[in-house]
Model the fold of this input.
Amino acid sequence: MSAAGAGGKAPQLQSLMPWLVLAFLVWLVGYPLLVVAAEAFGIGSPGGGGPTTEAFQSFFTRADEWNAMWRTLWISVLSTLAAAAIGVPLGFLFERNEIPGRRLLGALVALPVALPPLVGVIAFLFLYGESGLAARGLQSLGLDVSWRLTGAWAILLVHAYSMYVYFYLFTRAGLSGQDGAAIEAAQSLGASRSQILFRVTLPRLRPALAGATLLTFMTSLGSFSAPYIFGGGFRVMTTQIVASKLNGELRMAYVETTMLALLAFASLLLLRKIDPGLDLASGARGTPPARRRLHSRGARVAAACGGWILAGVLLLPHATLILMSLVPPNTWTVEAFPPVLGLVNYGDLLSSAERLRPALNSLWMAAVATLAAVVVGVMAARLSLRRGGVPGRALEAMMTLPWAIPGTVFALALAAAMSVNAPWVGRFVLVGTLWILPLAYLVRSLPLTGRSIFAGLRQLDPRLEEAAASLGAGALRTVLQIVLPLLRPAVIAGAGLAFITMLGDFVTSIVLYTYDTRPISIEIQSSLRIQETGIAAAYGVLLMVLSAAAFIAWDDRAGGRL
Amino acid sequence: MTASGVSVRFDDVFKAFDETVVLAGVSLTVDPGEIFALLGPSGSGKTTMLRLLAGFEQLDRGRLLIADEAVEHLPPARRGVGMLFQSYALFPHLSVAENVAFGLKVRGGAQGETEVRVAEMLELVRLSGFEQRRIAELSGGQQQRVALARALAPRPRVLLLDEPLSNLDPALREETRADLRRTVKQTGITTVLVTHEQEEAFELGERIGLLNEGGLEQVGGPAELYRDPASRFVATFVGRCSVLAGVVKERHGGDELTVRLESQPEAPAWRCRSSGELAVNDRVDVCVRPESVSLETGEGPGLSGEIETERFTGSNSFYTVRLAAGPTVEVAMPGAAAGLKGACVVRQLAGELPSAFAAAGESGR
Done:
């Protein structure tokens, strides 16, 4: 064993590592946001000129801008309320009552969470759109109905439909963690059923509901697919930003992006205030109360029918999507129900290399981004949790930050930062290249993998790593042979979620895609535009199947954890 | 099998976490092949000493030598130190044999050699036949032995034991303690162990270092610490003792003195042994071991008091006596509890003299 000299270099590199990873994350996550804000003020833009607040002035004076901001807010509030109104009762129904088919139904009802927003949106369009299955069905019955699924109500409907799952899952998790003894105690003290609900059960559900509120509100704030497809002239901030960019009003797009980012931050800070943390949830953990059994036969049948009808309604859009994917081009004109069904669209999709390309693009880009997000996540988590200190906290903050920021904001920020060649300030021309989308996907994957890897590592005894080190293992071997195998469930959970999300990504893709890297979502949108509904639906089904497969594999491995 | 041990030296080691000083200049030499126990209350710095030696923490000042070679700059992997963790830190995804082989494979040992060494280690801890078991299938005691085998397998120069028995239930502890001592002695390796339990330190350690608030209070063999404590802290931490306030009445030859107890000045003065410099009329604390006194019901010469409680532990009965106008004193009496009650006198027994220390708040500590 040589003297201290040989060991001198390694500790130096080791103490630098947290800063290196932090620098990378700041460059990837924080820096583009700063660039976009700076360019909104006209600083550093290629056009030159000094700092100016001109664009902000016109933002604050133009009514359509203010409207977009205001609409984003109230749509998010109403979406959250609507999602809660559906999700919370459903959660109670499935967690507290023993109804026939409870397990299967309970899982089916949670399914929309695994589906990309765009798929849900087009499924809605096919079912409830103006020439959708529902309208045609009613018209064929001789009813003279016609409606347009557009504007605020359409957006709200889609939001409520896709986001109730958050409340549903959080409510169920919250209820299953409650101690049945508390309810029995309340009963023995003479409380009525409604008193128990309002004084015992709901207060203890508050952390779960606060969590679901935060998740739903922030998702809704950054929602793009629904307002883009159904909004029409009704613009929210995300669609307003993309419209400004398409119109070439770059400066205004940057201002809007900055404003949306600020709105997101403010909402996050405000909503954190209502979250009581884990204090209420923890404490003595007992067995949840027994599920209520329905005694009369009639009640059981009614409950079962009700449940299945409910699941049917919730899954009808997806069934419609599958149906639409089976309709060959130009075969369905005025009939109420498609007269011909077949696999033509799938054949088309699979036999043509050009048609298959978006699927392959989505797969490789999502895979690369997920893999990179896992690597960065493991490095950041280890450095953050094992070294701590200022870089440790900053690392975790940088990993979490993209979660709070709408995808559109990041897309615009990357588009702004990576369209200029100025390596000395960390800016490279990546826009228009193969790498911009995987990079954007990586940013958006970081909080998803980071969250579960950080949680996993927090539960891992740090002594295991010390044991490996004292037995002579270096850092790399310790990670590969000890940390990673033990973190496997957490890594799979985070990676699965990230992969599913990026596979169906629409919001960042629409800003940053090139023809060569067009993902499935973009292909769906362009097929819709040229009225190739069958192909669009087939892509939708493909995305649905891939996501569901990943979801099932993930759910299996991760042991059903969210 | 037996390795020739190496020495371990802490040389004026200083360590602080943020603002808190954990070790304030500790110096200590552990002799080759010795089993050395670091004993102290929680927060005394004993675990930090162990973690500094293993390389999991970096010292702020001072030197750390293993076999006279400075190691403070070496990463844990290159110190040649094996550690048995309090939680054992066994790798739950590896089998028993894979756990034991880990340190050998890291060093790139040949397959055959590794297998031989693993078998040898498992035999040493009496777990042959458990090679393919999963860690979760083992009892606490078996896990502890696997952890020991894993730490010893790569032939470390020094073995570190962090509270090695604290995770076992009391019934198993005594048996495991003897087992652990036998195994470690068999390998002849220099061993440093950390514990907060006096009994554990006394039975495992050949020498003991008693730590308090980041400094070593005393280093010595078990008997030395018990009979000749260097400070009031040592006397009260090691074994049971009652503290009685008094004043030095007379000094005799050597370190012997007589002390008049404060609460009952008219009672016969006590013969004590002084620790440190004490002069006539100095106020002192006398540490009285339960077995160095006896009691008798009724009245007579000695400290008068009232029996408060009686406790029978099997070989002795312990009485708590509330002295008249004073503190309580614990008295051990051989044999079963006799149901003694009421007024009594407590007398000093011939033999070991109780230690007297300068009273807290007076000169010294």
Summary: The interface with chain B takes residues 1, 3-4, 7-8, 10-11, 461, 463-464, 466-474, 477, 481-482, 485-486 of chain A (CB under 8 Å). Residues 83 and 160 of chain A are 5 Å apart (CA to CA).
